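Whiteboard transcription, Tuesday session. T.W. wrote the structure tokens on the left side:
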């Protein structure tokens, strides 16, 4: 195959790290979203959908230089009008932008919001991680109270447990606020300077731009160095210590298993105080722990987005792809879409003409069907019904069209009944 033919062939497949989601898998995603939405609504969260495209500054000003998202992962474009846009690489900055733009400060605070949809990052595709990622997000904006942190974590844990997770633990840390974080970063920089010769190039660069990110490094050499790194919680000011202690007390009261992870920082610049990850133990490759949700407090994000004052907030995101692909996932079925149990077969011109009216009657009665209306042969349509594994077929032929009836056929036993149209719904309820 020539290079030209190879390029042409690759042009007509889904982009790397993105894929088509169909049939049962589609319903598994939809089922998860319905469950997550139901739990969120019962805990008082309200829906918010933000655009996939935002002005690039929403992310470059808020996420921060020195983070992988801004430095190498964002998909950006320039419009014909000269606007610089980015496909959202995460939800939080867009949610805060919407909160400010839509005057949500005037609502009773905090404002609890949930969002669901795709985000885009030019990341290295791997198991459960794609370049087009589906996330479910929870945010509570407008309060610095520790109970908001606990509420977000509790809601996230409940969603995961009801989706099938049985062995979750919350890794949690506090990285302080502007009162105490500066001192901690200085201590951290001094520590890493002592180990400069052993740091990989990527982490030496982070030391200049975003030292906290070194704690989150995936480099094996750095992981060993991080074992002796200064502990963020020991540098907390009295206010941050009190806040963190209260969060842990809420988790204990709700019997949510947690452990303090001194190296947990999260990757984005806007985080402050509480940061956490929800991990399913033994769910990764070779029984490794798998992070399925993460988040934290972002009290200073609003000023990056033009707010005159800080707006305290707390949020989290869960990776829906990882959840749906996990062996523990319950494969939740959406309530609004049931798997069809009827295959509608039509034969002859008169039946074909009236078939859409029969299908409409079934739709109004909430009876989903499968069909191949373009087919004319009974054998063809029965073969498709067999292949699709549908339990029953409704056969509507010339005779039935004249007599205003249908034949209902049991696809397993091959038995069948002729049923008058006005008795059909009653008959279907019985079977």
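and on the right, the sequence the group agreed on:
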């Amino acid at each position: 195959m020539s290079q030209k033919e190879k390029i042409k062939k690759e042009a007509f497949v889904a982009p790397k790290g993105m894929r088509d989601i169909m049939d049962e898998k589609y319903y598994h995603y939809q089922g998860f979203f319905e469950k997550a939405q139901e739990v969120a609504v019962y805990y008082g969260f309200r829906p918010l959908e933000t655009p996939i495209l935002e002005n690039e500054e929403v992310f470059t000003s808020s996420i921060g230089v020195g983070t992988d998202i801004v430095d190498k992962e964002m998909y950006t474009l320039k419009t014909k009008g000269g606007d610089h846009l980015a496909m959202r690489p995460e939800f939080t900055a867009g949610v805060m932008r919407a909160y400010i733009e839509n005057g949500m400060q005037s609502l009773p605070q905090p404002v609890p919001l949930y969002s669901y949809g795709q985000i885009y990052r030019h990341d290295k595709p791997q198991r459960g991680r794609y370049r087009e990622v589906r996330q479910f997000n929870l945010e509570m904006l407008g309060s610095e109270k520790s109970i908001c942190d606990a509420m977000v974590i509790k809601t996230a844990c409940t969603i995961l447990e009801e989706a099938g997770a049985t062995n979750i633990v919350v890794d949690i840390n506090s990285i302080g606020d502007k009162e105490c974080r500066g001192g901690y970063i200085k201590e951290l920089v001094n520590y890493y300077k002592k180990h400069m010769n052993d740091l990989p190039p990527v982490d030496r660069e982070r030391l200049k731009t975003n030292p906290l990110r070194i704690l989150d490094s995936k480099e094996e050499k750095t992981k060993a160095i991080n074992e002796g790194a200064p502990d963020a919680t020991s540098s907390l000011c009295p206010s941050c210590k009190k806040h963190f202690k209260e969060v842990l007390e809420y988790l204990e009261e709700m019997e949510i298993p947690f452990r303090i992870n001194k190296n947990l920082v999260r990757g984005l610049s806007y985080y402050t105080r509480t940061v956490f990850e929800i991990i399913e133990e033994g769910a990764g490759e070779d029984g490794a722990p798998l992070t399925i949700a993460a988040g934290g407090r972002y009290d200073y994000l609003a000023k990056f987005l033009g707010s005159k004052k800080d707006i305290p907030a707390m949020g989290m995101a869960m990776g829906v792809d990882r959840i749906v692909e996990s062996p523990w996932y319950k494969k939740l079925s959406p309530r609004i879409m049931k798997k069809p149990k009827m295959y509608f077969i039509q034969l002859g011109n008169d039946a074909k003409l009236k078939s859409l009216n029969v299908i409409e009657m079934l739709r109004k009665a909430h009876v989903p069907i499968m069909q191949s209306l373009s087919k004319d042969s009974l054998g063809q349509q029965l073969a498709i019904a067999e292949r699709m594994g549908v339990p029953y077929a409704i056969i509507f032929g010339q005779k039935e069209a004249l007599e205003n009836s249908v034949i209902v056929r049991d696809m397993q036993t091959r038995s069948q009944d002729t049923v008058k149209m006005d008795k059909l719904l009653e008959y279907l309820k019985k079977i």
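Someone added at the bottom: The mean pLDDT is 89.
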